[in-house]
Amino acid sequence: MRITHIPTNTVVSCQDEKSQIKNREKGMRVLRSRLYEIEMEKQQQALAKERKAMVGSGDRSEKIRTYNFFPSAEPAYRPSYRIHHSPT
Question: How many whole angstroms separate alpha carbon 68 and alpha carbon 31?
Answer without folding.
Answer: 55
